[in-house]
Amino acid sequence: MTYQALNDRTVVAYVRACPAMERVFSQDAPLSAKEVGDGNLNLVFIVTNGANPRQSAVVKQALPYLRVAGESWPLTRERMRFETQALLLYNELTPGLAPEVYAHDDEMSLVIMEYLGEHEIMRKVLVGRKPLPNFVGHISTFMARMLFFTSDLYLTGVEKKALQAKYINPHLCKIQEDFVYSNPFMESPENKWNPLVDAEVQAVRANRGLKVAIAEVKESYMAHAQALIHSDLHTGSIMVNENDTRVIDPEFAFYGPMGFDVGAVLENLVLNYLTHYAHTLDPEQRVEYQAYVLDMVRGVWTEFARKFEALWIENNKGELPPAQYWDFTGGQEAFAEFRHRYISGILRDTAGHGGCKMLRRIMGIVSVWDITSIEDLEKRALVERLAIRIGSRWIMARNEIDSVEDLIDIVVEETKGVNV
After folding, report:
1. Does pLDDT of 28 surpass 90?
2. Which of 89, 126, 129, 278 has the greatest number of CB atoms lying within 10 Å of its CB?
3. Are 230 and 253 in contact (CB under 8 A)?
């Protein structure tokens, strides 16, 4: 079928004509569709059987431009191929932690997948102070398995490079390279920020040491092809309920630094922690939930590192280096030291990339709903100033970070004595 952008009417006709959807929708079901995309990149439709709402599916279609910027910003539709490939691999390597893929169509640049009607976007759950008792276990498993099993630690060099070739994703990498690491820190027409933090924004842009550090972190993103990363793993790309966690929206997937994904999760939790100075007025409730969020930060890293190392010990099949490399007296101790250094490197990258992403959410083209939903600009500015200070310190301190407690200590130090 020749490419055409779908709408609420034509997407129903498309789904009816798709043989793979016969197992989802009963024959002659009264289908309807609603477009629910967030406006940044793609069209997203929920297609539902009016006679049985439990029969539903999501159709996601790429547009030939960056939706948040408009048709003046062309963008390849191939990003939907990367998303589909990644979702299929997630279902293979991390079953139950991503939506099931029902069908995909490269010509139409779309994928049809499971509708997660009993889940919510994680951002809103966190703002609502709802408990997520399984999130730490689920997201740490997702990251440990995806990052380990697509790396040189598990794959041979040939296997890894063959997989890497499937994820050469230059156009969406370019978006991250510009919008995360460059444009927010210089004059660029798409940047926007709360005018009450203009002084802080200009100070970041003029900070010589910080600008050098950000450039170094950008080089890591562009050149450190450790594993297949989601590359957009924020709390708007995770859907949750009390029992379940699903990772969505991997169209940015490519081979990059592991710490980028881990950093994205941790910095989004920290941003949410900060927004409770505006969202949660009761001091006792605020202190209690902020402590809970910091425990999540601690738990995500601790469990990720533990699971990642366990996978490595149990599946040491890759060529970085091969298992027999450690076959000498004292070799197992040396192997343990290498594992420790490697995982410590991921943590340092987590600090650098997480800090850059924290800053860009305050100074760049797209913020986060946790922050933009704060209507009082003074309260929002309080949150944003804290984020700028914490993000800057994570970046500058990244090479001295020895444990996740170092990252948490920076958050605690910068928020000590905050009055609202």
Report:
1. no
2. 126
3. yes
Pairwise CA distance, residues 360 & 358, whole Å: 6
Domain ranges of the chain: 10-114, 120-415
pLDDT per position as a tens digit, 326-382: 999 999 999 999 999 999 999 999 999 999 999 999 999 999 999 999 999 999 999
CATH second-level architecture of 10-114? 2-Layer Sandwich (3.30)
164-193 per-residue burial string, b: 16 or more CB within 10 A, e: under 16: bebbebeebbebbebbbbebbbeeeeebeb
Could you give the 3-state DSSP secondary structure of residue 163? helix
Identify which of 220, 194, 232, 123 has the alpha carbon closest to the alpha carbon of residue 388. 194
What is the token pair recorded at 157? 């060099």
pLDDT in tens, 195-226: 999 999 999 999 999 999 999 999 999 999 99
Give DSSP secondary structure letters for 394-418. Answer: HHHHGGG--SHHHHHHHHHHHHTT-
Its sign, for the CA torsion 262, 154, 95, 63, is: positive
Instruction: Let me know: does 230 contact 263? Beta carbons within 8 Å.
Output: no
Q: How far is it, in rounded angstroms, from Cα 63 to Cα 80?
A: 9
Task: Identify residue 165 by its one-letter amino acid code.
Answer: A
Structure tokens that stand for 292 in this block: 């809970």
Partners of 105 in the beta sheet?
110
The four Cα atoms 144, 228, 391, 193 give a dihedral, to 10 degrees, of -130
Which residues, including other chains, have CB under 8 Å from residue 27's CB and lie 6 or more apart?
none
Length of the chain: 420
Q: What is the third-level CATH fold of 120-415?
A: Aminoglycoside 3'-phosphotransferase; Chain: A, domain 2 (3.90.1200)
Backbone φ and ψ of 57, nearest 5°: -150, 160
How many whole angstroms separate alpha carbon 56 and alpha carbon 102? 11
Nearest Cα to 175, choosing from 36, 82, 268, 104?
Answer: 82
Q: Is the pTM of this model over 0.90?
A: yes
- Secondary structure of 323-392 in the HEC alphabet? HHHHCCCCHHHHHHHHHHHHHHHHHHHHHHHHHHHHHHHHHCCCCCHHHHCCCCHHHHHHHHHHHHHHHH
* pLDDT tens per residue across span 370-408: 999 999 999 999 999 999 999 999 999 999 999 999 999
